[in-house]
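residues and backbone:
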Amino acid sequence: VAKARADQLLAQYRVKDDDDRLGYLLMRAKLRVLTQDDVNQTIDYFDNTPRDGKDPDHQADAYGYALALMSAGRYTEAAPIVDRLLGYNRNKIAYLIAKAQIELGTDHAPAALQIFTDALKLYPQNPSLTVSYAQALLQSKRPQQAAGVLRQYIRGQAPAPELYNLLARAEGEAGHPVDAHQSLAEYYYLRGQTRTAIEQLNIALSLSKEQDDPYQTPRIKARLEQLKHEVRAEKE
């Protein structure tokens, strides 16, 4: 499954212009790290590649090496590599995310969150930055803020199911179970699991009634009816 997803993502990059070759190479390096079972083998692979130059191939191998080191918890070794990459392109999203993750990994959460805040001013509503920022906020025990970031993004986009799953986690950790179950319902619905989505909405409805929430209850009922109508239509 991981390999199939990797091939799909790489295919998306191949159809772009030659100017985005670096983006393709960075994605390929990242996927190599994510899809390998033995991180030490991945470190050895990148350790034997030329990665000291500015050309796209060298940058991608340096980026992959840094990610592999980070995956092994070796953040201090990865830091100078990412700093060098940022010297080539200080606004490259992949490098900014890696830098922020290094700050998180070395217990510098405020610095990491500031990197994301500044980056999102340059690239508002960027999906990779938004998800990474929300994950950083969760790691920093700021679930309410993470939920706010994700809700704002979702309002203006057609989000992937995983975003609703992450939002559900943030809402649950923030102490909003009704919202969490509604987000889980959307997650399952987008994955084609409408009956499971209905189960989540029923849980949300029950909790909403217990809390005597005059705003949530009608909205949940309306969404429930929509999904039930879809299920009935499928049977006809």
In short: Residues 88 and 115 are 17 Å apart (CA to CA). The longest helix spans residues 216-235.
